[in-house]
C-alpha cells in the first residue's frame, strides 16, 4: 500500500473541520446540560440520609447482583397541597409572566426607537442597553436596595411627590417603602432582564422594510393603524423570542426575590435554595428542580412549534 493511499484512508477516518464545528455545541450541551441533568435526576430518586452526600445510592452492586432502588416519594410530595410547592410554582409563573409583560412594554418602545435611529447611532444606543450587563448581576441587584429603600434619595423623592401614597392606596405596597415588596421584585426583574428583551426585538425590527409603512401612509392609514397592521405582526417572532429569554430564567429566579422581594414574595427558586442549603434535603430539592425544568419545557415546545409553522407558511 502506498503512502498516498494510507494518507487518504487516515483522512477519511479523521473528522474534518465541519464535524468539529458541529460537534462543539453538542459537546457543550453534553458537558453542561445533559450530564448535570442526569446527576440531578439520579439524586431525585434517592432517599434522604444523614451522610455526605446526604442521600442514599439508587444503584448498588454486590458481586453479580445489581439492585436498582427508585424512590418516587419526592415527586409525590411535590403534589401535596399542604406542602406549598404547587403554590410556589404558580406564584413563580405569575410573577415571571407579569414581569415579562412589563419588560415587553418597556423594551418594545426602546427597540423600536433604536431601530429607527440612523445607522451610525444604533450601535451606540445598543451599547448603552447592554452596558449594565457587563457588571456583576449581584452588584446590580444590590444597587436597587439603596435606590428603593425609604431612606434613600429616590425613596424620599417618591415620598414627597406622593407616589408612595398612591402605591399604598392601590394596595401595591403595605408599608412606606417599595423595598421588600412584590413590586420591588418586578422592578428588579425588568431592570436585569431588559437587554434580553431589547436585543431580539431590535434584531427583528431593524430588518423591517420601511416602504411598507410608506405605502400604508400613502393609502391613508394613520401611524397607529399602520403600526398595528404592519409593524406589530411582523415583529411577532421577536416578541416571542424576547418573552422566552425573559420568562424562562425569571421563573427560577432566586437573587432578586431574596434581596428585593422580602419574605412575602414566594418563588420556587427560594424554595429550591432552602431545600438544598437550609434543610439539606438534596433528593427533594432535586425533584423540585426536575419538575421546574419540565415546567419550563412547555413554553420552549410551544415556541418551536410556532417557529415551525412560520417556516412552513413561508415555504407554501
TrEMBL record:
It is found in: Cell membrane. Keywords: Cell membrane, Membrane, Transmembrane, Transmembrane helix, Transport. It is a multi-pass membrane protein. The keyword 4Fe-4S does not apply. GO terms for biological process: transmembrane transport. Residues 89-303 form the ABC transmembrane type-1 domain. GO terms for cellular component: plasma membrane. The keyword Translocase does not apply. The chain crosses the membrane at residues 21-45, 95-115, 127-147, 183-205, 226-251, 282-304. Pfam families: BPD_transp_1 (PF00528). Belongs to the binding-protein-dependent transport system permease family. CysTW subfamily. This is Putrescine ABC transporter permease. It comes from Pseudoxanthomonas spadix (strain BD-a59).
